Amino acid sequence: xxxxxxxxxxxxxxxxxxxxxxxxxxxxxxxxxxxxxxxxxxxxxxxxxxxxxxxxxxxxxxxxxxxxxxxxxxxxxxxxxxxxxxxxxxxxxxxxxxxxxxxxxxxxxxxxxxxxxxxxxxxxxxxxxxxxxxxxxxxxxxxxxxxxxxxxxxxxxxxxxxxxxxxxxxxxxxxxxxxxxxxxxxxxxxxxxxxxxxxxxxxxxxxxxxxxxxxxxxxxxxxxxxxxxxxxxxxxxxxxxxxxxxxxxxxxxxxxxxxxxxxxxxxxxxxxxxxxxxxxxxxxxxxxxxxxxxxxxxxxxxxxxxxxxxxxxxxxxxxxxx
Length: 322
Known about the structure:
Layout: H1 9-18, H2 21-25, H3 28-42, E1 46-48, H4 55-60, E2 64-67, E3 71-74, H5 80-84, H6 91-94, H7 96-108, E4 114-120, H8 122-131, H9 139-147, H10 149-173, E5 177-182, H11 190-211, E6 217-221, H12 228-235, E7 239-241, H13 248-255, E8 260-265, H14 267-272, H15 274-288, E9 293-297, H16 307-319
Parallel strand pairs: 1-4, 4-5, 5-6, 6-7, 7-8, 8-9
Antiparallel strand pairs: 2-3
């Protein structure tokens, strides 16, 4: 999950130099620096490219901004005319600074540290594009999908094509693993989950596998519950992230038979630290140790996390079983 961020003083310093969040994403030297910061501190096994899922709508030509204290703010797209303005042909060129960051990281990361690239899944990115910002229920996107399913499907198709282009360019630049974040997958009822969460990711993974059979893909259908089994089987992903609400014993019995799992410490336990955090870490390791498993959080690290708690987590995981 997210590695760099406001919990690190060195990140805050670099972020101030950039002037704005998007400037940071599009400044290869600064984006490289913040990607390397947590690796220098903690020596994680893998490094996650510093970028954002909303660079894709920005690449398509939608107006995207980030307001301090508010998060992303977009000019909402809610009509066929709005879809007509999206331009697939400009995505790769517009996002060239991101791929330049990847190229720099292939030289500056330690040789043993894997580089993970990523994108948002079409459904999750669409919720921001339609709603204009994050929302607790993704209501604007769901309403459009229910009222005008063909129009909304057109947006999903555009995003699917753009995501294939974006992830392919990241592999060409040097990333070794890809992750697809569907943060709001759990808000979809089963029929729509299959249509808007599974089908687009299936097409993305199929396209990537045809070109890059050696590059593993991790999916994160947050909140999917038992539908995660169908998600794995139908999309073709090799790894799956478990959110904090996923039952570990069920995941060990059912999910790990299908894919490598990643997760799922609650980020707020990492804030709290102490005995509760240590017990949770040990429980995750003990429950999932028998099959392929990547220790991780169940969602992104939060700004109020004490850096020393992250260091303790790394030490506990590295020393487990010794």
